[in-house]
Amino acid sequence: MSLRIALLGLLEAKGPASGYDLAKSFEHSVNHVWQAGHTQIYPELVKMAADGLVAVESEGARGRKIYAITADGARQLRDWLVEHQPSGTIRSETALQAFLLPLLDGDDAVQVVERLRAFFASRLADLECKPHEGPGFGRYALKLGLAQSRASLAWADETLADLKTRSTP
Amino acid sequence: MSLRIALLGLLEAKGPASGYDLAKSFEHSVNHVWQAGHTQIYPELVKMAADGLVAVESEGARGRKIYAITADGARQLRDWLVEHQPSGTIRSETALQAFLLPLLDGDDAVQVVERLRAFFASRLADLECKPHEGPGFGRYALKLGLAQSRASLAWADETLADLKTRSTP
DNA sequence: GCTTGATATGTAAGCTCTTACATGTCAAGC
DNA sequence: GCTTGACATGTAAGAGCTTACATATCAAGC
């Protein structure tokens, strides 16, 4: 379902686009919130067209099909946004490594947290590159991502400090 | 892979357990980091036993099988923790709703953010109930979850304020 | 005109996860 | 002794996602 919603959202916000365009948008904008590669997007667009949520607006070179959101699609998007209680499902390998940290002894644990720290830092840097402030489409999610990344980075620093005091009692 | 790791981690940390026990542990402890129901756990344990990562230590009433982690399993767990670069994959319906927020007009947007706020608040409350501080097994991940939840909650408050200034110019 | 690399679109196999169904045991209260 | 509800273990269908493969076009440089 959420893949559909993300695709509908992109089509609604940025206008008609091809599968390739949408895959690029996933990479560059929705990326920190939801992921999907072209191998998932192309077949999904076909199904969505069959369900009347999008329509092929025009066809260009290289079999390029430009999809546009339909009235039905726009309605479904709005309904989902306003009515759908988001599922709390989170599956995070980074958090899982944090969870299992106490199974490692000192040095190994420090190494893992340092890798996690680097990971959070690079994600934060990614987000900080994106157009801040202003009326950008994904601006709210961007702020959320920034806030969460900063919190994660702070956690890594605290945890490193904690591990070091434990190893030198 | 990560499901296996989570199961190995629980067995390593808490000792031998049945599928049911592990499902309960998922619900009560790993829950904010990784989810799995019994329908996923039972068959996975069978496969893991076939791969020599766990072994049936004893069988009790009601077909209850107690699994224990093997030396191979412990090795694989440690290797994954120390060597595996976590994938940055995040799929969050809450963040997706945040992302698509600008597609809604004022009142609807406020309603959605209020629901998100309630969601974050209840997750935070959940985490705050769990045994804080002390040497608990998942303590680092708990702190990470708390930090992220607080950041998300703060985001919701900021966003509500932002939406309200926009609607009354 | 030919090669090369970026662009662009797809299919298929296999793994992971969810939802729904199916079954049987044990303890407590009647 | 029977019912009921919590405990406990499983299977199966189908949806969702990843990885690997397959192909064809266009632009730029040789």
Describe the protein in words.
- With 169 residues, the first copy, chain A, is mostly helical.
- In chain A, 65% of the residues lie in helices and 7% in strands.
- The first copy, chain A, has a two-stranded antiparallel sheet with strand order 1-2.
- At the A-B interface, α1, α4, α5, α6 and α7 of A face α1, α4, α5, α6 and α7 of B.
- The first copy, chain A, binds a DNA duplex (30 and 30 nucleotides) through residues 1, 3, 18-20, 23, 35-40, 42-43, 61-65.
Strand and helix map with partners:
Two copies of one chain form a homodimer.
Chain A: H1 2-14, H2 19-28, H3 38-50, E1 54-59, E2 65-69, H4 71-83, H5 93-100, H6 106-129, H7 139-167
Antiparallel strand pairs in A: 1-2
Chain A binds a DNA duplex (30 and 30 nucleotides) through helix 2 and helix 3.
Summed up:
The structure is a homodimer. The longest helix of chain A has 29 residues, at about 140-165.
Into which percent range does the helicity of residues of chain A fall? Answer: 55-70%
Query: Beta-strand level of the residues of chain A, as a percent range?
Result: 5-15%
Give the CA-based shape of chain A: elongated
Run of helices and strands of chain A: HHHEEHHHH
Structural class of chain A, by secondary structure, is mainly alpha
Please give the radius of gyration of chain A in angstroms.
20 Å
The two chains with the largest interface, and their residue counts, are: A-B, 61 and 61 residues
Strand order of the largest sheet of chain A: 1-2
Largest sheet of chain A: 2 strands, antiparallel
How far apart lie the N and C ends of chain A? 52 Å
The DSSP helix count of chain A reads: 7
Oligomer: homodimer
Determine the mean pLDDT of chain A: 94
Secondary structure tally: strands of chain A: 2
Parts with pLDDT < 50 across at least 5 consecutive residues of chain A: none
